[in-house]
Design goal:
The protein has one domain: Nucleoside Triphosphate Pyrophosphohydrolase (Alpha-Beta Complex), CATH 3.90.79.10. Helices cover 29% and strands 41% of the residues. The chain is built from 4 helices and 7 strands, in the order ββββαββαβαα. The strands form 2 sheets. It has a 4-stranded mixed β-sheet. It has a 3-stranded antiparallel β-sheet with strand order 3-2-7. By secondary structure, it is α+β, with helices and mostly antiparallel strands.
Amino acid sequence: MSAPNTPVRYTAAGGVVISPSGEEVLLLIRPSRDEVRLPKGHVEPGEMILETALREVREESGYAELEPISDLGEQLVTFLMDDQRVERTERFFLIQARSMARVARPSHDAEQFFTIWVSWDQAEEHLTFEAEQEWLHRARRAWERQG
């Protein structure tokens, strides 16, 4: 446990996932917190950052046929959780779903998140957090450069 003034620090990785056509973006709806998010999660010990991003997308969305397109970089996100300062280093990737077929998700993820596909513009309107809106902007620029 951290001292009261010492921030909790960890690294998370995730993806801005686009449909096979590249016209839609995958969002996760978390009703229990009234949030709309991108898939991401903690980097486990010994795990490579890209491995984490792909694992988290699979677990949280059920989409398994994934192709990493571009490394979107890193940003530091700080916030308070239960009066504790958290400093999370986030690393995101632009990832394309190669198929719309889904596999079974772990039950805790299936209960926690609903998935939707929306246009790029709708994704920006719906995302709850600014940091994830920034990832969306980076992903859209990267995808347009692929064009």
